[in-house]
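worker-03 picked up job from queue 'complexes'. Input manifest follows; two sequence lines, order preserved.
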Amino acid sequence: GAVVSQHPSWVICKSGTSVKIECRSLDFQATTMFWYRQFPKQSLMLMATSNEGSKATYEQGVEKDKFLINHASLTLSTLTVTSAHPEDSSFYICSAPGQGITEAFFGQGTRLTVV
Amino acid sequence: AQSVTQLGSHVSVSEGALVLLRCNYSSSVPPYLFWYVQYPNQGLQLLLKYTSAATLVKGINGFEAEFKKSETSFHLTKPSAHMSDAAEYFCAVSEGFGNEKLTFGTGTRLTIIP
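worker-03 finished. Artifact:
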C-alpha cells in the first residue's frame, strides 16, 4: 500500500526556536496533504490542508504565521513550528489521500517537546 | 458539517470476549466512515472503511463494522479480543472521494484483561 513517511519521529527544542517537520509520500504523488495535532489523551484535530504549489488552508483558530506550511513538490510537505513554546508540545501527524481511492495514509507522527 | 461521537473513552474486555466500540456520526452528505487504530507514539493504521458499498465492512485483524443509516451508527466489533488489540481506536468521517479531510471522534482506549 501507499506509504507516507514523516520525519523526525521525535524532537526536543528550546522555547523560541523553530522546528521543521517533513511529510513525504514515498510511492505516490500527493497534491494535498493534511496536518493534524494531537494533544495527550485527546483526538486528532485538523490544523491545515497543504496544497502543492499554492497556499495552505488553515482551520479556524490555527495561527498561520506560527505554523508555516510549505508544499513545494508533489511528494513533500513541511510544517514549521516557529518560535515554539511549551504549549506547542504535542504529537503532529500528517496524512495524504491515496490516488483514486477514498483513503488517507498517515505518517508515523512527530512527538514535539518544547522545553 | 460533519461530526463523530464515540461513546466510552475507555473500554475494557476480557481476552476472548466480544469487542464493541461505538461510533455515531453526523453528516450533511452521504458519509464515508473509517476506523483507525493507534498504538502508543505511532501514527494511525486503517482498520476498515465504509464507502457506500456493502454496509457490513470487514477489516484487518478480525475487526468488522456495520453501517446503519437509520441509526447513524458505525460500530466496530470483533468476536474474540486478543491482547494485541489493546490500543486507541478512532472513528472518523469524511465527505468522500475528492474530500478526504477527516473529522475524528475523541477516541476509545481499549484495554484487554488477561
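worker-03 released lock.
The interface with chain B takes residues 6, 9-10, 32, 34, 42-46, 49, 91, 93, 95, 97, 101-104, 106-109, 111 of chain A (CB under 8 Å).
Residues 4 and 25 of chain A are 5 Å apart (CA to CA).
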